[in-house]
């Protein structure tokens, strides 16, 4: 069990006046069986004209904002205290054959899905804005999916393959970099690696979703923990009919534990971006983001 205080600060500066801004925020973690939100605060400057708390179509907590007074900056600070427990993941060899899961997930006329979770999982088999279904992903990941291999063992092998063959490079990609370019360059960030793993799974007909959150990082030996030096993180969740959703972090080659704080999940990054919206005016803008994950125990 671990307790954290997380601060996520976003600051926009505009070169011209913004007359209207409408924003969708995903900055409040989900309440989950292994994760308890103890306290949360959301400070917005300037104060919004309208503010609405809701849940999106995936069940994630979200906040809708409207600012209809002129402004040239927008500052949003989310602070939360949260407790996270380690999850008892199943043995990866103790899962269904991946081909059998593909068969279960295919549409069969006249046959109903077995559960609400099964129905929900079908959403995560399809293409999405940042994840295309391509034979290149199937070909590249073929060594992970030997005939008869248990699904979770195949997913674990895919996680390890991405970690071993790709280099983390924060300057190699942007949010809009196509996954085929990431595959060719063998470089990217956690968002790219999560999208790539999802693409390899979905291209075989397997449900996989994108998970956004935070990860406790450790400073170099002998150096203090720096406030604002952390970042958002992303990993993958794979659906196995026998065990439900099972998480894999290809950036770090681990199955997430109590150092991973789950914020939201969706088809890809576009569903769970911490802040996105539209503005009228504004001209050019500068963006500063600072994240701190501070252990409380």
UniProtKB/TrEMBL annotation:
Residues 182-252 form the Transglutaminase-like domain. Coiled coil: none annotated. This is Transglutaminase. It comes from Amnimonas aquatica.
